[in-house]
Specification:
The protein is α+β, with helices and mostly antiparallel strands. It has two domains: 41 residues; 147 residues, Sandwich (Immunoglobulin-like), CATH 2.60.40.1170. The two termini are 62 Å apart.
Length: 199
């Protein structure tokens, strides 16, 4: 081994191999470290925030005049139907898939009986489910860069026997009293999901 270290040729080759080894390590480290910056330069990953406003009010209720902003329903008799207006105002700068979801308070005996749009066209939904998703992706994608305005009218029935009869329980609507002072969020909640499609 001593003889090898004294050899000029061996030392020259050893220095070459050490320099190559250090060079490869530096190159590998720089590629791993800076790859995230290189990828962010080559493509954009910014999401443009959509402007979105969603209101749910009982039909005939004026939010501007309602100080509580909830439009309380004074009285609701069993099997009586009431309509809630859902106003959607949005602006999408990129292609966006929009879907709405609603959940009706079935524990207190409410169910959705009908959903129509602002033109009176009926929208299909599963009447046997307390939660449903409504897909408006086709409409929202067409309106990229424009205002998306949609009005839905959701008719809700106070029908405490509906869910009980689905479970096979005997029920008589006349056994139930009218309910009073119900706010919108006690009856139905509406949410939305807007998935932006980045190019």
């Amino acid at each position: 081994m001593k003889g090898l270290l004294h050899s000029k040729k061996f030392r020259k080759n050893l220095y070459k191999w050490l320099c190559m080894y250090v060079g490869v390590l530096m190159l590998f480290t720089s590629v791993v470290t800076y790859s995230k910056y290189v990828s962010s330069i080559s493509g954009t990953s910014e999401a443009r925030v959509a402007k979105f406003k969603l209101e749910v009010v009982p039909e005939g209720c004026d939010i501007a005049e309602d100080t509580d902003k909830s439009c309380v329903i004074d009285e609701w008799r069993p099997t009586e139907a009431k309509t809630f207006v859902v106003n959607i105002n949005a602006s999408f700068e990129v292609l966006t898939n929009l879907s709405l979801s609603y959940t009706v308070n079935y524990n207190d005996g409410f169910r959705v009986s009908e959903i129509v749009d602002g033109l009176g066209n009926e929208i299909e939904f599963r009447k046997s489910q307390p939660t449903e998703y409504l897909d408006f992706s086709i409409e929202s994608r067409k309106l990229m860069g424009e205002e998306f305005n949609k009005v839905l009218k959701i008719t809700v029935v106070y029908d405490p026997c509906f869910w009980k009869s689905k479970n096979g329980e005997a029920c008589d609507p006349t056994d139930y009293q009218s309910i009073q002072n119900k706010k919108v969020y006690d009856i139905i909640s509406v949410g939305y999901l807007a998935n932006q499609m980045l190019k």
